[in-house]
């Protein structure tokens, strides 16, 4: 029994090392959120067993939780770089698959069609606004700056304000409000599915997205020209790495001790 109990411990230690290694590997990844592994003990006994004699048969991975605490903000000066000062996720839609993604990575650019996109081509979503800049719907649309103004002048640049307004400017000095950045919130963000590239998708555990404009209710404001860095604390991860290593070594030693005891019993019988 001790062999299998310690074997569970070795597997769990390996899982913990994998989680820590992934955190450390993404310590410089923009918008990355670290994970933490949780264990649960395994107890095998019947209702008639003496509770004072139950030894337990090891542990198992109970969950790997995501930590959505804010990471440090770094100023970049990029016109389309954004960081959320508070809660919420940027919303993106792939023009190829139509799938919706959520991210804290605000590194966006402008493509040839005037769409605000990420590095994979997914389009940033904004809330439509009227001429006065007031939000008219909570259904997000693609952020697209018209390449020609209403008076026929060419597009020059696009900027983003703290309230999330995406403003396009033109050669004649006129401007057009494209919309306000659509931020998404979830009842249980820990239930979001990680799909890589600092992107998440909604699941039945996270619940559907609720959209709002920056600065409203529980949503944070937009920091233009900045990016949110990873929330990984390298010192904390290194301490966890040492602890996991000791955990692995201790279980390996328990297996070695059990092997020696078994060999001793075999030698006595022979």
Task: Characterize this entry briefly.
The protein has helices at residues 2-25, 234-269, and strands at 35-41, 59-66, 73-75, 81-85, 89-93, 100-103, 106-107, 109-110, 116-117, 123-127, 141-142, 155-160, 165-170, 175-181, 183-185, 193-196, 199-201, 210-212, 221-224, 226-228. By secondary structure, the chain is α+β, with helices and mostly antiparallel strands.
Kindly describe this structure:
It is a single chain. The chain has 270 residues and is α+β, with helices and mostly antiparallel strands. It folds into 2 domains: 2-67 and 232-269, no CATH class; 73-228, no CATH class. The chain is 22% helix and 31% strand. The protein has 2 helices and 20 strands. It has helices at 2-25, 234-269, and strands at residues 35-41, 59-66, 73-75, 81-85, 89-93, 100-103, 106-107, 109-110, 116-117, 123-127, 141-142, 155-160, 165-170, 175-181, 183-185, 193-196, 199-201, 210-212, 221-224, 226-228. The strands form 5 sheets. Strands 5, 6, 10, 11, 12, 13, 14, 15, 16, 17 and 18 form an 11-stranded antiparallel sheet that branches. α1 packs antiparallel against α2. The longest helix is centred in the C-terminal third of the chain and has 36 residues, at 234-269. The radius of gyration is 26 Å and the shape is elongated. It is found in: Bacterial flagellum basal body. InterPro entries: Flag_bb_rod_N, Flagellar_basal_body_rod_CS, Flagellar_FlgE/F/G, Flg_bb/hook_C_dom, FlgE/F/G-like, LlgE_F_G-like_D1. Belongs to the flagella basal body rod proteins family.
């Amino acid at each position: 029994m001790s062999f299998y109990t310690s074997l569970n411990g070795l597997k769990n230690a390996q899982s913990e090392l994998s989680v820590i290694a992934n955190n450390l590997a993404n310590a410089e990844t923009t918008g990355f959120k670290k994970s933490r592994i949780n264990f649960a003990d395994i107890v095998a006994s019947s209702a008639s067993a003496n509770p004072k004699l139950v030894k337990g048969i090891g542990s198992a991975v109970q969950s790997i939780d995501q930590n959505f605490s804010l990471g440090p903000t770094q100023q970049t000066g990029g016109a389309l770089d954004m960081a959320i000062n508070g809660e919420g996720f940027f919303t993106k839609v792939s023009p190829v698959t139509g799938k919706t993604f959520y991210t804290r990575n605000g590194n966006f650019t402008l493509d040839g069609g005037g769409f605000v996109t990420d590095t994979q081509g997914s389009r940033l979503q904004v809330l439509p606004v009227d001429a006065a800049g007031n939000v008219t719907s909570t259904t997000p649309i693609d952020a697209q700056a018209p390449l020609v103004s209403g008076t026929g002048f060419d597009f020059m640049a696009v900027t983003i304000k703290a309230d999330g307004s995406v403003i396009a400017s033109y050669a004649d000095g006129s401007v057009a409000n494209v919309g306000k950045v659509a931020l998404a919130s979830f009842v249980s963000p820990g239930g979001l599915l990680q799909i890589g590239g600092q992107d998440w998708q909604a699941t039945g555990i996270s619940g559907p997205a609720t959209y709002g404009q920056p600065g409203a209710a529980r949503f944070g404001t937009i920091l233009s020209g900045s990016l949110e860095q990873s929330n990984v604390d390298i010192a904390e991860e290194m301490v966890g790495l040492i602890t996991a290593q000791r955990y692995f070594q201790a279980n390996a030693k328990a297996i070695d001790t059990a092997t020696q005891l078994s060999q001793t019993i075999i030698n006595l019988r022979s």
